[in-house]
Fold this protein.
Amino acid sequence: MKAHNLVLVANEASTPLARKVADLLGVEFSEMIRKRFADGERYHAFPTRIAEKALVIIGATHNDSSHQEVLDLIQGGRYWNAASINVVIPFLGYSTMERAKPDSLEIPKGITRTRQIFRARPDFVAFIDLHSEAVLHAHTGEIRTKHIWTDRLVVEKVRSLGLENFVLVSPDYGFSKRVARLASLLNCPHTAADKDRYDTDETIVGQISSVVKDRTAIVCDDMIRTGGSIVQTANRCFDAGAREVYVLATHLVLAGDARHKFEQGRIVRVIGSDSYPAVEPDHLVDVYSVAPLIKKAIKSHLISPVDQAREFSS
């Protein structure tokens, strides 16, 4: 597949990120034609012919509207005979709900929503820093999937801070394996807190190892939703003697009063990616882009090495 046979589109929320990817790939970004009818129904049209071309769709599914738009784009690509339909989900909504508690009768929407994406019949779906890889297996084996890890970008970002004598901290043991992997790449120590969840958005974080004493602690997680457990972990780090605390997470949801919690919690900086739509850097939040990782995934999946050498610079 050559680059000129690729059509890159996005749902409305992920359009800024998709434009960055298009620039890196050296292809034109195709802005979907959108209208809103008086009764609330939405109109979509592709701005260019997609028949016999590789359609690439970039779309976070962080709310119901964006999730539905991704489904519409996939089905639209199928209707207008795209040669292949390739989807990149920077942020997967409901990703923390990948399983249901026994006898709870709750709907594990991390699985059911992902199945909706797969059943729309894309050829390839890539996800960035999933909360659980269980969702990768929510199909019948007919769709190629890829889990894109941000490790390389995270390591580069931490090194750019110029910190010395720092330690990585996981807010719970469930995420500690990922933190250990990052710590090995950064050649630094790591530890984990004890965390118990007692309600939908409520947690209790226990003590932190004394390894953080007189060090800069970097609290790491896959996403920051309301910030409650992160701030608790930061406080436990201060209790254990940490000099200062940074926070690092891929997906910056920052719901409710999360920013206020961080400012009140003596957090130096919150570092994360642009995978979650509309996150802007400011005095507290430091944002790096996942566009280079998406570019790499698209090139490796769709564009042959010969075509890459001819049409793209490394």
Observations:
- The radius of gyration is 21 Å.
- The mean pLDDT is 91.
- Residues 3-149+291-311 form a domain with the Rossmann fold fold (CATH 3.40.50.2020).
- Residues 64-79 form the longest helix (16 residues).
